[in-house]
Structures are given as C-alpha cells and as structure tokens.
Amino acid sequence: MVKNSFISVISQKENAENRGSVEFQVFTFTTKIRRLTSHLELHKKDSSSQRGLRKILGKRQRLLAYLLKKNRGRYKELIGELDIREIKTR
C-alpha cells in the first residue's frame, strides 16, 4: 500500500509515472533496506544478506548525494517523507 501511494505522489508531481526518477529509486532502496534489516534481526549470521544490504545502502547514499547536489528542496522533502537521516557531508 505504501509503495502504491508513493508512486501516485510522484506521478501527480510529474504528470506521469517515472520509475527511473531519483525519488522512486531511493524509495525502493529504502523499502529493500528495511526488509533486509528486519531479516537480519532474525538471521544475524547471514553474510550474503549483510553484503547485499551494504551494497544497497551505498547505492542509496550515492543517489541522495546526487539529489542533494542537484536539488536541495526535493532532497529535504524526500528524506522527510521517508523518515531517513541526512547524509553526512564532507
């Protein structure tokens, strides 16, 4: 349900479903991260899932850095909607 509602929010803003948008990609990575985190709470020694989680975290971090550089307003709005922390800037 949350995924469908977020897709509709993006499509209302851009007048078409754009699944390649940075916001949609960050949203899908966030749902995967939350699912893998709950899986790893039960299966602490699942190293392949830990590796996958680290890879997805890196991809999301790079996308968020790109969005921060290109459009700070959309970045702030996105992290507010997804309830995630801001990335550390160097």
Please explain how this structure is put together.
It is a single chain. The protein has 90 residues and is mostly helical. It has a domain of 61 residues: Orthogonal Bundle (Helix Hairpins). Helix content is 77%, strand content 0%. The protein contains 4 helices and no strands. Helix 3 packs antiparallel against helix 4. The radius of gyration is 14 Å and the shape is globular. It starts with a helix and ends in an 8-residue tail after the last helix. The mean pLDDT is 86. Its main location: plastid. It comes from Neopicrorhiza scrophulariiflora. GO terms for molecular function: structural constituent of ribosome. One of its GO terms (cellular component) is chloroplast. InterPro entries: Ribosomal_uS15, Ribosomal_uS15_bac-type, uS15_NS1_RNA-bd_sf.
Low-confidence stretches: none
Instruction: Report the oligomer.
Output: single chain
The second-level CATH architecture of the domain at 21-81 is Orthogonal Bundle
Describe the sheet with the most strands: none
